[in-house]
Amino acid sequence: MGCNRNCGLITGAIIGAVLAIFGGVLIPVGDNLIGKAVKKEAVIVNGTAAFQNWLVPGSSVFREFWIFHVLNPSEVMDEGAQPKFEQRGPYTYRVRYLPKENVTEGENGTISYMLPNAADFERGMSVGPENDTVTVLNLAVVAVPAVFPSSLMQSIINTWVKSSKSAILQNRTVQEILWGYKDPFLDRVPFPTVNPIVGVFYPYNGTSDGPYTVYTGTEDIAQTAVIESYKNKRTLSYWEGHCDMVNGTDGASFPPFVKKDQVLRFFSSDICRSIYGVFYGKQVVKGITLYRFVVPREAFASPAEVGDNYCFCTDTEISKNCTVAGVLDISACKAKRPVYISLPHFLHASESVLQDVEGLSPNEKEHETYLDIEPVTGLTLRFAKRLQVNLLVKPSKYIEPLKKVKKPYVFPLLWLNESAVIGDEKAEMFRSKISARLELLSMLQMALMIGGSVLFLAFMGSYFICRSTNTK
Predict the structure, then answer these.
(1) Which helix (H) or strand (E) holds 289?
(2) Three-state SS for 31?
(3) With contact defined as beta carbons under 8 Å apart, do 422 and 367 qualify?
(4) What is the pTM of this model?
């Protein structure tokens, strides 16, 4: 009988050990099965789950605008005083809801497409109608010294500026500032090449961005959605060196199996450059665990602090020998117009930039850019892309409205937040098809390992206790 009992205990211990080992073996086996399933569905090929999500945005993307309204216009115009601002907004538009156009399969595992631009006003998500009036910078007048640096040309242009009674500031509706209006000064210029329509985002509706060519991942899963070329080029022709490269994806997705120690690179045509995000922490969105990557302060740091940023320093008016941080001169890709990009409210910018204006309050929580990514698939399920559009204002003794300007400074026009979060229906599908299966496999692995180990220890302990009792 003692033998039977001891044999039973040994058998129980063996079963426990087998279960624990099986649980351990399930880890690489399970990971291998998950890897195969993801590789099959994550590639951008017609018929996969990733393709449909890539072709048509999986959730509504909204772009909120806050306009910087000038509170002291007469002092700015008459005395060249420092402008005081009050942000007005949000004015919200639904964007990025149209499917990609001209989708064409290419060679070497690539696919090309155009990204259509469309913006529909959402009155229910806005503080007021599009015809709300704000006092803002005169876009056309301020751009003259940059577009026409010749003193002779500026003197000639000044006759049209004066005859149109244009000033350094103007009152415009939100719709006009964003999407375009006929400028009275430009309308008088007799050159056929001069378009009198100006606006921060003019032209937008009905236009397209691209073509983009990206890797599908069929030949290398680690290259999925990575941009091979933009406008049929690997470089932008705006910057020098590595700054001019088109790097990473478009931000909507990344190659599968994202790790916390990765630097995720993505390209944004809005800011005419590639940028990157670093891991910040975990987020849970609609029951799905995501990795949050944020654009760090170092991405906009001066070359004096981050040497790799040397090739983004191109302006000679504000940069002070490339020691000023937080503002990026993108005039090279804006037809010489003096457009400067920054984070909202000059977040992470040098103090000298903030000192030239009043009323801005940078705040990381409200003004940073982040991407929340599901790490196994690499899909971005929530994001907030925030940036600010500014113009360089500089004095000119030939342009009447600019004679009172005391020194060059960066003048904020507006900031925007382009954001989206996975919809409830897609989240449910994601949870059932991916998250739930991963959690179930993980729980099964842990249950087998822990349960098997407990059984092994319990039976072996009982065996040795019985054996010691029998020998007495």
Answers:
(1) strand 288-294
(2) helix
(3) no
(4) 0.86
